[in-house]
Amino acid sequence: MRAITFPGDRQVEIIEMPDPTPGPLDAVIEIKASGMCGSDLIYYRRPVGTPMSEKFQYQSGPLIAGHEPCGVIVALGSAVPESFGRVGDRVMVHHYSGCSACSLCRSGWQQLCQEAPSRTYGNNDHGCHAHYFKVPAMTLVPLPDTLSFAAGAAISCGTGTAYGALRRLALSGNETIAIFGQGPVGLAGTQLARAMGARVIALDINADRLRRAIEFGADHVINPAQDDPVSAIKDLTRGYGADSSMDSSGSGPGRIAAIRCLKVWGKTCFVGEGGELKVDVSPDLLRRQITVMGSWTFSTIIQAECAQFIADKKVDADAVFTDYWQLDQAEEAYRLFDKQTTGKGVFLI
């Protein structure tokens, strides 16, 4: 099979690799859609000769990139229970695996496993930018028949991450939420929050992203480069502030504003990776009873719930993608994605 790898220094190489065969508890997926994620650029941009990850690498030689898989089961190991799936089933994959036996793994939170170094596909183990993908069968998540494979790829990372954060916030339809950063995760958050009935205030410093946020259902948009975001949000909420906020920008100013824009008893959830946060604890948190939480992607159970919510509410999850590619276009696809001037891309295989 052909597969995409990142040698480093913004290079892409398409290599030939053997088709995978399942172990007793594994499944092999024929990939139909494999999404491109902003975190891929960390590995794409790294210097030649450096490892893909600081974690232990589970495979020798080049690692296959990509961690937003969706496809069809084509082979199952001899010991896989039928409840995990059958050949021909349409499935997504939870893109981590742990020890598989601890309480966190068994509840679907394999990325939080404390018993063994976790595998993160496309990072320290083979990913899904390829024709086939071998994974532990317990990481399979059903794809509703009404959803496209591209939608399944979106749910397998960015859209699922947004849903997981909104679920942590326990967002309700009578609330106002401010969503900082309107990249793919933020846009999905805007789209899903609107489908949940909430009033959505979308923020970004990029005018094109704000335009897309309106298309995705935002009730109001704010450009923090032009207007003070906290004041603008309070103007839109009769001076009280938003009920909740989500930061997908990963920026210090965005995170501070996500806290300060809240009303008393408000809640904020951070999903943007990296960086630091410095707050004035008394006025920013204690004296307004503010809750600050983080959310790292989702569990298998929440991934399945997200997919069913999207199917039931007829949310156009495919809309998050602006660019569709074939595997042999990978060099062009990542060169464009690296500029971060467009939206999200997906390989259809």
Task: Give the secondary structure arrangement, pairings included.
Blueprint: E1 2-8, E2 11-16, E3 26-35, H1 40-45, E4 69-76, E5 90-93, E6 96-97, H2 103-106, E7 119-120, E8 132-136, E9 140-142, H3 149-155, H4 158-169, E10 176-180, H5 184-195, E11 199-203, H6 207-215, E12 220-222, H7 229-236, E13 242-247, H8 252-260, E14 262-270, H9 281-284, E15 291-294, H10 300-313, E16 321-325, H11 330-339, E17 344-348
Parallel strand pairs: 10-11, 10-13, 11-12, 13-14, 14-15, 16-17
Antiparallel strand pairs: 1-2, 3-4, 3-8, 3-17, 4-5, 5-9, 6-7
What number of domains?
A: 2
Count the helices. How many?
A: 11
- CATH-level-4 superfamily name of the largest domain: Medium-chain alcohol dehydrogenases, catalytic domain
| CATH architectural type of the largest domain | Alpha-Beta Complex
Question: N-to-C terminal Cα separation, in Å?
Answer: 12 Å
